Structures are given as C-alpha cells and as structure tokens.
Amino acid sequence: QVQLVQSGGGLVQAGGSLRLSCAASGTIFNINSWAWYRQAPGKQRELVADINSGGETTYHDSVKGRFTISRDLPKESSHLEMNNLKHEDTAVYFCRADVTSTVGPRRDYWGQGTQVTVSS
Tell me, what's the pLDDT at 75? Predict the structure, then answer.
C-alpha cells in the first residue's frame, strides 16, 4: 500500500508565498511522475503543474512564472513553491503520484488535500 501525505498551505496575503509538500511512503518501487491539482469551490479540479521522470515540467498558464514544482527522489516527495499568490489561487490543493508499487499494479495515488487561502 502507498500513502501520500501533504503538508503546508494555509492563509496568506496576496503577493505572499507558500510551499506545499507531499511525501510518499509504503510499497514503492518507483514514482514515475508527480502532479499538483487544485479545486476551488464550485469549480472542477484542474491540473496546476506536473513533473515527469525526466524532470520535465508543465504548468497551467495561470501559474507560469509564479509556481515551481519539484521532486526529491531520495525522499520520494514533491513540492510546490507558490510565489506572488493571487486571490484566484485560493483552492484545495492535491498532490498525485503515478506509482509503480512493489506489490501491485502501477496506478495513481492522491494526497488528502490542503487548503490554500489568499486574502486580497
């Protein structure tokens, strides 16, 4: 079994910064990719950023130049550095990992979600 545990988030003023973290544990053989999503009230979940096994990253247009996704291979974790936050970044943020397990099929796992609130 694989678990993803998120940390970080909270309340910040517009223009401020936050760092989200997501740590994986369990029967992990390899983490193929990481991604961060967010879901604002009344809206669908959207992809914010992802990073593949080669370290290539993609970002939602609205966060380009402000957010940075990274991964820590030895620690099997990912981080989302968020700078110059805007009110419209307010949402619940989720991490997702594409995991090859030592005991089961390759599949996605999700973190529990963390609230980010940006006051204007």
Answer: 77
